[in-house]
């Protein structure tokens, strides 16, 4: 079937490629409707690798998706042709120690869409395990369904933070994931969330939400802004979502004594950490890698209206224009948050 294929670093093509077409036991076949472009997709396109994951063979991109079930395999219950769904893209080994502990996101053998050598979902149809396929409520559109995947990272961060109702949080980085974390923190009980970034257009977008205040790093020192907002006490929670070395180094200054730091952003190279600054306040440090056991809760929050991700969808392009869509994503326009591709 025709798919968007990353042939090698810097080269994309819409062409036929062999992919599974018949659902096996416990699987469903889905007609893909909407696929979001993730930063990791773009990074594979522009760099050909992320860490030790290297594109050594043609690979179909895409892992943020929604669609409609068109066929079910043997033993599938709870899903039927015609169901509108979104798909969790990481498939773990159910027998692994990590999975048995509920930590399937860190299962070393997890097969994750569009992570070499596993094909992604930028194709008209995909076959996927029913256990990782979720019905979309009527109130959640296909476009929103394709936003569940990035929002799940925000949910994972909120869970790891152990939010207490009324907390004040700081989010460093107003990229798509930083925005998802900020909204998940609000939904999780934070009274206020301060979001800091250099890109004013992105701050303007996330600043439209009630409960979110913005800090433009170009004009305001985040440490001073947090001190002013907390009478010098510090933030209950600090979410580092940029992966930038200066931001990582600053987290100890922003948190209150006994507060928590959640590391979400992934630096390209190792970065320094001020361990004494963390120790002096006895800060709890948590890390996030993808997500586990949060998809259903993410969908429920969206269906309830408590989380509205529609303002973060910057543009939707046709499948035929997929290469142009990726080129636009690679530009990194400050006014773009999430670009999506609508399948034929």
From TrEMBL:
SUPFAM superfamilies membership: GroES-like (SSF50129), NAD(P)-binding Rossmann-fold domains (SSF51735)
Cofactor: Zn(2+)
Gene Ontology MF terms in the entry: oxidoreductase activity, acting on the CH-OH group of donors, NAD or NADP as acceptor; zinc ion binding
Key words of the record: Metal-binding, Oxidoreductase, Zinc
Domain Enoyl reductase (ER): 10-335
Keyword GTP-binding: no
Domain of life: Bacteria
Family indicated by similarity: Belongs to the zinc-containing alcohol dehydrogenase family.
Protein name in UniProt: D-xylulose reductase
């Amino acid at each position: 079937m025709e798919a968007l294929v990353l042939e090698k670093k810097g080269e994309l093509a819409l062409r036929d490629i062999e992919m599974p077409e018949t659902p096996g036991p416990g699987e469903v076949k889905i007609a893909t409707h909407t696929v979001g472009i993730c930063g990791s997709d773009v990074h594979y396109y522009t760099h050909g690798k992320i860490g030790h994951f290297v594109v050594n063979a043609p690979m179909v991109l895409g892992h943020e998706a929604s669609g409609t079930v068109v066929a079910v395999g043997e033993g599938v219950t709870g899903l039927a042709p015609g169901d509108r769904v979104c798909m969790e893209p990481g498939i773990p080994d159910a027998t692994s120690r990590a999975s048995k502990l509920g930590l399937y996101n860190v299962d070393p053998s997890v097969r994750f869409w569009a992570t070499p050598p596993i094909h992604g979902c930028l194709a008209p149809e995909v076959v996927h395990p029913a256990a990782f396929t979720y019905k979309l409520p009527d109130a959640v559109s296909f476009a929103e369904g394709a936003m569940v995947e990035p929002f799940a990272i925000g949910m994972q961060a909120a869970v790891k933070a152990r939010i207490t109702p009324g907390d004040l949080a700081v989010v460093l980085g107003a990229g798509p994931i930083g925005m998802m974390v900020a909204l998940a923190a609000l939904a999780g009980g934070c009274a206020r969330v301060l979001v800091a970034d250099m890109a004013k257009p992105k701050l303007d977008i996330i600043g439209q939400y009630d409960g979110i205040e913005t800090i433009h790093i170009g004009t305001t020192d985040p440490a001073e802004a947090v001190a002013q907002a907390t009478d010098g006490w510090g933030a209950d929670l600090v979410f580092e979502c940029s992966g930038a070395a200066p931001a990582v180094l600053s987290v100890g200054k922003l948190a209150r004594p006994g507060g928590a730091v959640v590391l979400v952003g992934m630096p390209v190279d190792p970065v320094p950490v001020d361990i004494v600054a963390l120790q002096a306040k006895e800060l709890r440090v948590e890390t996030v890698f993808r997500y586990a056991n949060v998809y259903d809760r993410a969908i429920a929050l969206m269906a309830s209206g408590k989380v509205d991700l529609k303002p973060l969808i910057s543009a939707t392009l046709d499948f035929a224009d997929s290469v142009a869509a990726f080129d636009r994503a690679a530009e990194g326009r400050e006014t773009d948050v999430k670009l999506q591709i609508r399948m034929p």
